[in-house]
Amino acid sequence: MKITVAKTAGFCFGVDRAIQLVYRLAGEGEKVCTLGPIIHNPQVVEDLSKKGVRIVSAPEEVKPGETLVIRSHGVSRDVYRRLEQEEIPYEDATCPFVSKIHKIVSDYSEKGRIVLIAGNPSHPEVEGIAGHCKGPVYVFQDENALIKLIEEHPEFTKMPAIMVSQTTFQQNLWETCRKTAKKHYTNLSIFDTICNATSMRQREAVDLAAQSDYMVVIGGRNSSNTLKLKEICSQYCNTVLIETDVELDRDAIRRAGSVGVTAGASTPAYIIKEVRNTMSEILKSQDEEVSFEELLEQSLGEKLYAGKRVKGIVTAISPNEIQIDVGAKQSGYIPIDELTDDPTAKVEDLVKKGDELELIVMKVNDQEGTAMLSKRRCDSEAGFEEILKAYEEGSVLEGVIVDVVRGGVLVLANNVKLFVPASQVSDSRVEDLHTLLKNKVRFKILEVNEGRRRAIGSVRAVLRAEKEAAREEFWKNIEIGQHYTGTVKSLTSYGAFVDLGGVDGMIHITELSWGRIKHPSEVVNVGDTVEVYVKDLDPENKKISLGYKKSEDNPWEILKRDYSIGMVVPVKVVSLTQYGAFAQVMPGIDGLIHISQISTERVNKVSDVLAVGQEVEVKITDIDFDAKRVSLSMRALEEEKQAAAQAEDTSVADIEGVEITSDEE
Fold first, then answer.
1. Which residues, at least 6 apart from 647, have a Cβ–Cβ distance to it below 8 Å?
2. Is 297 a catalytic residue?
3. Claim to verify: residue 111 and residue 157 sit in the same structural domain
4. Does residue 7 fall inside a structural domain?
5. What does the DSSP assignment read for 106-167?
6. Minimal CA–CA distance to 217: which of 207, 195, 232?
7. What is the CATH number of the domain that holds 426?
8. What phi and psi values does residue 159 have, to the nearest 5 degrees?
9. Residue (of 401, 398, 360, 364) closest to 379 by Cα position
10. Cα angle vertex 471, ends 468, 476, to 5°?
11. Which position among 46, 91, 110, 125 bears the catalytic label?
12. C-alpha 510: how far from chain center
């Protein structure tokens, strides 16, 4: 008998992540409850129950002191809101691929698009996805349901819409629904959201079933992806779904010439192992030369091989390498350069004898009986999963710039070195990338190559997003009259542009000084810190007019305080006209000396008496603060002088004409 086991049998990434989280919390002594069964596998749920893990159907059922775990299927936006309102502590184990769908439907439905979801309407994952939509949402589970939706709502076919699928949706059924939707909807965006692991699992199952006489699918009967595996395999050969080895049909296995084995994403390894042992006994009873256990181990690759993940115990430490027991016939060792990326780190500070480490097999030498292992690359792979998650969710990561390479820099984050192009290291041009070395940066992932385990990041995207968020917040709060401290960013002939913290405003040249200036550089320079206030706003065009002149520096206020009508002041002629001359009383205020007020004698031409730049004394004869006018007179001073001179002459004449008499006469 030929037995073949699918390579992808067992837990997927999202399920394994959720299960490990619950086991860890329970192992740390926390009181844990899960929102629904953590996975659709009764054996795992029962084992967790023995460890004190409860199942609740709503946040309100969580008891004080308990931590709620959201399973990999995800939940609606309303559940998160209730958790926050009730201040219930929780851990979110939503699969990153499901979270990505939540973001897609949330963003597009907020823009007014109709959301179409391919999936089981009663499945918790689909209910969670629908719960993140902010508008019309419709679920269909096959092509017939999609056609019925089109017939009932023909108006939707011309409206903006998007289509996504449940992560475990059947691949061939999805392709059929895609073609149907594209024929009818004229404004539809389609997102392929079936999990890669699900697609691969289903493709392998189809290929395996097509080559087998009998298929055994291991998994919970409530598991959507397990049921789909049985469904697609049944199209090619006799297929059974079992939850444990107790359900194996011994006679059917003996009769089959070839048997294929696969397992759902929620099937733990120990159940597969139990099925393995039972099938091994069945085969031994037929005196097969090779037991099923050996075949399964060959298929699953349980022996050491390059690239395999293993756990090992540190048995000895030396300056150049670490000895590891990985439970295999080969003795394992980790060269020092495969322990860490940090060349300054000391081995004794990183590991101790008896520590358990997760490792990757780099090379196996059966002749020498050794296996070279790497912790550094294992950490890198684990870190790459975080990189992948950040890429799927669009989240921000933190790292340190560790090297400058051709075209950009390398950033170390989560034990992974990723490339940031020179154009993405900042939101402004950086002449020398070496000046950025050892800088901590925040970045987003732009591109991921899973096959080569490489990623490209962008610091610029984060900086621009933060500035955009700051701008939005700024425009929410800005009001006319508000005061800001800003930095002069640039100068033009008509004013100065000021950075108010990510948003620019302009001080018009007339607002820079109470006096006349020819260019803004007479008052401010690029880089100056200035105190300004909002004079006017244009939110639609995102324009801000700023004021810079201070009321206490207003020359008219100074004039009102320090000057009065009748006061004699020195002035400087600044311009000549046919009807008189303008003279500067003080910086910012010019007064008019009318041609009739220049002299007591007739003046035919102003330039015959006055010239620009000439300094003269005048008398302030009038001030009109409303009209901003000051009247000056030179003639008034002359007349006063003439009157004084005449008065003096009269006094002298009176004295000379007096007759002096004496009592003696």
1. none
2. no
3. yes
4. no
5. HHHHHTT-EEEEES-TTSHHHHHHHTT-SS-EEEESSHHHHHHHHHH-GGGGGS-EEEEE-T
6. 232
7. 2.40.50.140
8. -95, 155
9. 360
10. 130
11. 125
12. 41
Which residues lie below 8 Å from residue 391, measured CB to CB, with a gap of 6+?
A: 445, 448, 455
- Provide the pairing of β-strand 238-242 with 214-218: parallel
- Mapping DSSP to helix (H, G, I), strand (E, B) and coil, where does residue 99 land? helix
> Quick one: DSSP state of residue 659?
P
Number of domains forming the structure of the chain = 6
Instruction: Among 531, 549, 567, identify where a domain stops.
Output: 549
Amino acid, res. 145: A
Longest CA span, the chain: 180
Identify the helix (H) or strand (E) that includes residue 629.
strand 629-633
**Residue 103 token pair:** 């973001």
77-109 confidence digits (pLDDT tens): 999 999 998 889 999 999 888 999 999 999 999
Q: d(Cα 532, Cα 483) in Å, to the nearest integer?
A: 6
In a domain, 608, yes or no: yes
Domain co-membership, 232 together with 182: no
Q: How many CB atoms lie within 10 A of CB 646?
A: 10
| 409-431 pLDDT tens trace | 999 888 788 899 999 999 888 88
- Residue 278 and residue 207 share a domain: yes
User: Would the CA dihedral through 403, 405, 410, 416 be positive or negative?
Assistant: negative
Please identify which residue in the block is written with the tokens 């009592």. 663
Q: pLDDT tens, 614-640?
A: 999 999 999 998 888 999 999 999 988
Q: Kindly state the helix (H) or strand (E) to which residue 393 belongs, with its residue range.
A: helix 375-393
Q: Is the same domain home to 637 and 544?
A: no
Q: How far is Cα 174 from Cα 513, in angstroms, rounded to an integer?
A: 69
Type of residue numbered 89: P
Contact between residue 373 and residue 324 where contact means Cβ atoms under 8 Å apart: yes
Instruction: State how beta strands 309-317 and 258-263 pair.
Output: unpaired
Q: Are 177 and 141 in contact (CB under 8 A)?
A: no
Q: Which of 279, 300, 321 is the last residue of a domain?
A: 300
Per-residue confidence (pLDDT) for residue 266, from 0 to 100: 80
How far apart, in whole angstroms, are the C-alpha atoms of residue 150 and residue 180? Answer: 10
Going along 375-453, which residue ranges are E strands? 397-405, 408-413, 416-421, 440-449
Those residues whose C-beta lies under 8 Å from the C-beta of residue 555, and which sit 6 or more positions away, are 514, 515, 586, 587, 588, 589
- Same domain membership, residue 235 and residue 283: yes
DSSP letters along 267-336, please?
--HHHHHHHHHHHHHHHHTTT-SS-HHHHHHHHHT-S--TT-EEEEEEEEE-SSEEEEE-SSSSEEEEEG
Question: Which DSSP string do the residues of 155-166 spell out, in sequence order?
Answer: GGGGS-EEEEE-
Strands of the sheet with 90-92, listed across from one edge: 54-56, 31-35, 66-70, 90-92
Gap between the terminal Cα atoms of the chain: 175
Q: How many other C-beta atoms are found inside a 10 Å radius of the C-beta of residue 105?
A: 25
Q: What's this model's pTM, rounded to 2 decimal places?
A: 0.42
Q: Which amino acid is at 25?
A: L
Alpha-carbon Rg of the chain, whole angstroms? 43
C-alpha closest to that of 242 among 221, 257, 266: 221
Judge residue 317's burial from the number of C-beta atoms within 10 Å of its C-beta, 0-12 exposed, 13-18 middle, 19 or more buried: middle
Tokens of 51: 């460890």
Q: Kindly report, residue by residue over 371-386, the tens digit of the pLDDT.
A: 888 888 877 777 888 8
Q: Which domain holds residue 173?
A: 97-194
